[in-house]
Amino acid sequence: MPELPEIEALREALAASASGREIASTRVRQFALVKTFDPAVEAMAGRRLGAVGRHGKHLLIDVGGDWTLAIHLGIGGRLVFRSAGQKPGRTASLEIGFVDGGALDVVEQGTKKRSSVHLLRRTEVGAHLASLGVDALSPDLTVERLAELLRADRVQIKGFLTDQRRIAGIGNAYSDEILWEARIAPLRLSTALDEGDVERLHDAIGSVLRRALEAARGGNYLLVARGDKRGAFMVHRREGEPCPHCGDRIASIHFAESSLQYCATCQAEGRRYADRRLSRLLR
User: Fold this and answer.
1) Fewer CB within 10 Å, N- or C-terminus of the chain?
2) What is the chain's mean pLDDT, rounded?
């Protein structure tokens, strides 16, 4: 699933290429994608796209000054620009055609259609985002704010980082990278972190996401209809490979639909957690 760095790079690309363009028409090809009906997305015709914002993994595109097109790309969503005369791909779920002949398509890969589009009145945007926590790259996420959030509930730190209600924008991939850089075990409890841990975690959130953002600016897979190529990871998706810090083999914990990677030596004092796949087989 795309996370904050890829979404922010996409926001920048949209701001550069779509802002100010007048909409000629819209066509919904996958009706489950659009979650609102008033105003209707077809009513965007004749309006211009304006500023492009973001909160967490949600894109927020101004439409005509008083509407906002909120897009969440889910697992397989993409935004693809088409030049004049170019036909949409078969996986296009929403087509936004411009007066100048180009178009912007919301495309979904795979069978799990989890992308969503909401056309909101500006007064409705706050409620739409109300369930989200502080943006992971916002100046509001200070060390003190992070410490307060960590103390609020006794949860495993991996789950804490990926819970959008606490901090918006971090998912499975970059939480692995953040915890590795901060040298914190993924199953450690949030309330057990001391002051030094919190400071390292705060620093790692910023440094990991900013490096990933630079990589995404150089080639963002969200702008093409296929592929899921992101910048090089240190631990995520590198099970069995040597840790760049200590050389120990990267370990994994597998769950029903996901997995996490970590370095036992750097993050868990040499301890290797039980692999959930093996635990199920031994029952």
Assistant:
1) C
2) 92
pLDDT in tens, 157-179: 999 999 999 999 999 999 999 99
- Please state the pTM of the whole predicted model: 0.92
> Is residue 185 helix, strand or coil?
coil
Domain boundary at 128, 161, 189, which?
Answer: 128
Query: Which residue segment(s) compose the domain that 45 sits in?
Result: 4-128
67-80 confidence digits (pLDDT tens): 999 999 998 898 99
Same domain, 35 and 159: no
Which of 128, 162, 190 is a domain's end point? 128
Give the SS3 label for residue 138: coil
3-state secondary structure of 245: coil
Q: d(Cα 134, Cα 175) in Å, to the nearest integer?
A: 16
Q: Are strands 67-72 and 116-121 parallel, antiparallel or unpaired?
A: antiparallel
On whether both 28 and 86 belong to a single domain, the answer is: yes
